[in-house]
Task: structure prediction
Amino acid sequence: MRIRRILAAVIATAALAGLGLTGAATAATAATAQGAPSVVSPSECRQGGGMPRIDLPGNPCVGGTHDGDTVD
Result:
């Protein structure tokens, strides 16, 4: 009977540790997805629904799916 309780505790601990690792991996993936802005062409900016603003510092794409990306 004691072995069953110990085994159940070990399994529960392993399951909780696995959930913790999954949460850490998800947080790392989210941070990577929000990384540095990419470089897009003016046509890619427009196709994504944005407006290339090469008159602003950093030449950003404003609006759309490429909002904040640098226009090259």
